[in-house]
Amino acid sequence: MVAFSTPKENPRHTSKYGKIRPPIWGNIPLLICQVFAMRGRSLSILVFLVLHGCAQPPQDAKPMPANEQVATSASPPRKAPSPMQVVILASEDIPAYSTVANAIARQLGKRASIHYLTGSQLENIKAVAKLKNEENTQIVSVGLNASIAAKSLGNKQVIFCQVYNHQDYGLLTPRRKGVSMLPSIPKTFSAWRSLSPSVTDIGVISGPGFDDVIQTARISAKSHGFRLHHKTVNSDKEYQYAYKNMSKMVQAYWLLPDNRVLSEHILRDVMTFSVRNSKQVAVFSDELLKLGGLFSVSSDYHDIANQVIERLEQAGVTDIVPGPDIAYLDKLKLRINVVMAKNLGVEIPEPFRKFAHAP
After folding, report:
1. Most buried of 68, 108, 250, 283 (most Cβ within 10 A)?
2. Arithmetic mean of pLDDT, 258-278
3. 126-148: per-residue pLDDT in tens?
4. Which of the four pLDDT bands, split at 50, 70 and 90, describes residue 75?
5. Residue 249 has pLDDT above 60, yes or no
6. Contacts of 169 (CB under 8 A, 6+ apart)
7. DSSP 190
């Protein structure tokens, strides 16, 4: 049975005093005199005691300030808590996961360790469950399988990433939150507007459960002069139909990596349809530029690592992970297909020519 495979690579007691009356030792003879007088003692004794009292030097008693504190031995300084250790669980040892895991580990240094899950889902859950008793430890899960396995760690703070359809698996709890796998949505539409000033309508199709993403996309698209047309589907056949039916309303498509409704066969079919009908397509992988995408936008691994670490630090030693359910990325990696740009009559602006690529 395979569990993990590790990559080579005070308070002080103080007293406060109010105004203190002067010491009474100098007045004791007078007090004695009064007592003896009341008892009818002789005048000679009274005179003697009075004179004796007058002979005592006056004692000046300065009242202690009300806010003065009595010094006591200082308590030893409280020891700072040890930095949290971070266990990084990766679904597989493939670039999509290992690159992100390594980027996180490099920033955390000795605090981090990477474990690749290589067994079945049941074996993964059993292996991960051993981490329940690890104290002072946070968890990062990279990929869907690792994130599902990490659900067994209900007593740990977990940050998941490289998961697209987290809604289908109930990954979100107050202690378990995520980082988006989509590149910066505002910067995607900003780059698109720079490339294509004449485009007004963009279509996007997804499976269910992406209302937050689509709402964010609508706002970003509108701010850059686009109208976003969205359709929710439940299968790849529905995707194919909706894609082609939407072509009457849009000049371009924004593809999302939703493998629930976008199979490889349907992906190739809709890309062929787009080329034949002169539609611009923003794709999610450089490899899809070969199929006719105008440009690709993908996540920056360092951006993902930064967002994950920021969430870990925000959580600290609290019981929950504060902030939104999903943290969105700030950056993107852009590549432009010069062949499709020429075919579609898109002139690449000077600042974007460094991203030009011939697939």
Report:
1. 283
2. 97
3. 889 989 999 999 999 999 999 99
4. low
5. yes
6. 144, 147, 148, 151
7. H
185-238 pLDDT, tens digit per residue, is 999 999 999 999 999 999 999 999 999 999 999 999 999 999 999 999 999 999
For 65, residues 6+ apart whose C-beta sits below 8 A from its C-beta are none
CA 245 vs CA 40, 113, 202, 229, 274: distances in Å? 124, 49, 13, 12, 12
Residue 59 CB burial class (10 angstroms; 0-12, 13-18, ≥19): exposed
Q: Which residues make Cβ contacts (< 8 Å) with residue 98, sequence separation at least 6?
A: 7, 90, 116
Q: How many residues does the chain have?
A: 359
Look up the pTM and report it: 0.75
Cα angle 164, 324, 219; round to 5: 75
Contact between 142 and 97 under an 8 Å Cβ cutoff? The reply is yes
- Cβ(279)–Cβ(247) below 8 Å: yes
Q: How many CB atoms lie within 10 A of CB 291?
A: 19
User: Could you give the angle at the alpha carbon of 315 between the alpha carbons of 169 and 138, nearest 5°?
Assistant: 65
Q: Give the model confidence (pLDDT) of 149-168 as tens digits.
A: 999 999 999 999 999 989 99
CA atoms within 13 A on the CB side of 1: 9
By the 8 A CB rule, do 105 and 140 touch? no
CA-CA distances (angstroms) from residue 29 to 22, 38, 47? 16, 14, 11
Domain annotation for the chain: domains and CATH numbers: 85-181+304-327 (3.40.50.2300), 185-298+331-357 (3.40.50.2300)
Instruction: Output the six-digit token pair for 208.
Output: 């269910």
The span from the first CA to the last CA of the chain, in angstroms, equals 43
CA 322 to chain centroid, in Å, comes to 8
Report the DSSP beta bridge partners of residue 317: none
What's at 62, amino acid-wise? Answer: K
